[in-house]
Specification:
mainly alpha; two-stranded parallel ribbon; 8 helices; 4 strands
Length: 205
């Protein structure tokens, strides 16, 4: 974040930024505080407690105001895959634990309590996460699947952008956040541009 803050204000680098991808985790929903509401959804309201993830996302949204780049946020649980220098990767921890047991001539077992062994855990393949990151960074309005019946309600934010709380409320109501491209248009231009894209996708407009 400090590196982004430093480079974001450099004119020769600011215009090269196209998208900012934030990878958060289950602490967004309070997994570090104990049992939490499941299935966890992005439309759930924020917890009334300090959370670094909230501050980071709000900071990114604030920096994006009036800029050409866009942002997205993904929240995987445990991420498994090959990596270098990442102590949070469970594969390296499991491998080290298995190697220690083997050296001691002991069978591989689970070192935790039975409740932890029986608990459901989401595992995200890092290759799948990378595909999701690419999709989130590049998915334009023109690729969104439209419903076969009913109406399409297009919501365009103000010049300062849609606030995170407003976005959460829209998503909870069934909205799908999309972008028109790398350019950030004025409110007066974004609406007609989005309608033109929808009109090219169907004959609703």
């Amino acid at each position: 974040m400090r590196r982004f803050e430093k480079d974001h204000h450099k004119p020769h680098l600011r215009h090269r930024i196209e998208h900012v991808q934030i990878i958060h985790g289950m602490k967004w929903y309070g997994s570090n505080l104990g049992p939490y509401r499941t299935p966890a959804k992005e439309s759930h309201p924020r917890l009334p407690l300090p959370n670094f993830y909230y501050d980071q996302l709000d900071a990114i949204i604030g920096r994006q105001t009036g800029q050409r780049w866009s942002w997205s946020s993904l929240r995987p649980h445990f991420v498994c895959g090959l990596t270098v220098g990442s102590p949070s990767n469970p594969l390296s921890t499991l491998g080290a634990y298995a190697a220690i047991l083997k050296a001691q001539g002991r069978p591989l077992d689970f070192p935790g309590p039975q409740g932890s062994f029986d608990a459901a855990l989401n595992i995200t393949d890092v290759r799948l996460l990378c595909r999701a990151m690419e999709w989130a960074a590049t998915e334009p309005l023109s690729r969104v699947a439209l419903p076969s019946t009913g109406e399409v309600l297009l919501v365009v934010g103000p010049e300062g952008g849609i606030a995170s709380t407003e976005l959460d409320a829209l998503v909870a109501a069934g909205a799908t956040p999309v972008r028109l491209g790398t350019e950030v248009l004025r409110t007066s231009s974004a609406g007609p541009a989005a309608i033109a894209v929808l009109n090219a996708m169907s004959r609703w407009c």
